[in-house]
Automatic annotation (TrEMBL), chains A, B, C, D:
Residues 55-129 form the Thioesterase domain. It comes from Microvirga alba. The keyword Hydrolase applies. Keywords: Hydrolase. Gene3D superfamilies: Hotdog Thioesterase. InterPro entries: HotDog_dom_sf, PAAI_dom, Thioestr_dom. GO terms for molecular function: acyl-CoA hydrolase activity. This is PaaI family thioesterase. The keyword Hydrolase applies.
Length: 145, 145, 145, 145
């Protein structure tokens, strides 16, 4: 019934994120939206000093921030450039210590309603198949007229 | 590294569930474990009076119970018949009203550790592709010696 | 700013629940709304056969159903008799095995917005101070005009 | 039965956090453990450039990091200096936009088991009574011999 096709191109969404969310690039550009598809999106986060704790482990907040931005991008890809969507719930399961590698966040939208969008993200260390962190998130979408 | 193959057969797991969890069949046998596979399992819950609210809608607790039993079965399939695994966390996103149909719970294990197992479930109305409820769950596994 | 006072009386809310949610009494009346207060409510669930698993333990779905109904009542007490509020997210932490006793669900509302209400519940075995199950829930509130 | 008294002093816990978790002070010291009590702890996070997004709003990851550190400290206060406790689950409800103020994280432990500790946190803008973010978290505690 509903089409699950994104309505923004990858380039348009990248530009939108750069313009509206410059904060994700503070201290070094490390996020790259790699792919968008039907009810899906993939984002990459470089292994970079600003995400690390002493010892070289990627910090929890860095993973949580990645999950949030990636889900946000997945939703925008399908509803268009609405800068006012707001995160209302995030649930994280931390499964393994990440490698000293870039992280890949694979998102799948579970619902795209008029008021709420819900998605899930699996985060992997690049080159590995084991999920290091899984998250689900809910976003409130402003009225569109 | 780790094999993701189940270590119980479908028949052995069905028998184990019948013996150890007779409660799921109280008031009528409605749960059927349909399939187990690598880090996955699928359970079916009939559309049956005992799961309904007036009006014919499947109740929230019925869906929550299905998610829990299905995840539990998915874990047992991979660790063997350990009746003492305990649910520690369940997170549910309710996405749509279910149809007046059987529900199918598709489970995927995200982690099978020594102490904790984590999985996710997508619940569909039979014959539909829209997820009505998505859940993640964590189970504490007793020490095995 | 916002008043946190309930806008329904305990009696009016009890009658509303009985009329609109008769399902919670199927198989025996076991839920009793005991108290409503500023951003709070307390519901009791009798220790009753219909909530038990073989062995006498209160089932997970019975606790989850209690948490949902109690939060729902807490919200209605503060927004008035709106039968169409819908549960969108529930997160449960199961902390201990409940006693063979009635359960008490103590709710606190965390937010009462125009579109979303969020609350938490602590469930105790009657007469005990240890929480057996803690839940948070989000409810979508229909447009009111 | 169980005592709910902390077993570390506020000073000992502050020193331990400084030594074992220097990362939380990278870019400026903004976290202050203000209080520990029976099954509780309170942490303050200054309103500081490093936690902000353009426009001056405190970022989601900054709030999520605060919740995690505060819960972690609350647990350590009660189990002693065990640097290897690991976050396994975090659930966040984002309720309001925080003020341009310091944040206060009020933690309450819900369970302190041998293997798992569970707690909740309410985060407020300093000087306000409205909760901006509520979280629950589960931590895996290593075997202690």
């Amino acid at each position: 019934m509903t089409s699950h096709q994104p309505i923004m191109t990858l380039d348009a969404l990248r530009e939108f994120l750069d313009r509206e969310f410059p904060q994700i690039h503070v201290g070094g550009r490390t996020y790259e939206l790699e792919e968008i598809g039907p009810f899906s999106a993939r984002m990459r986060m470089d292994y970079h000093e600003k995400h690390l704790r002493p010892g070289g482990t990627i910090s929890g907040p860095a993973m949580m921030g990645l999950a949030d931005v990636a889900l946000y991008a997945a939703i925008l890809a399908h509803i268009g450039p609405v800068p006012l969507a707001v995160t209302t719930n995030l649930n994280f399961n931390f499964l393994r210590k990440p490698e000293q590698q870039a992280l890949i966040a694979d998102c799948r939208l579970l619902k795209l309603g008029k008021r709420l969008a819900v998605g899930e993200v699996s985060i992997y260390s690049e080159g590995s198949e084991d999920i290091v962190c899984h998250a689900t998130g809910t976003y409130s979408i402003p009225d569109r007229r």
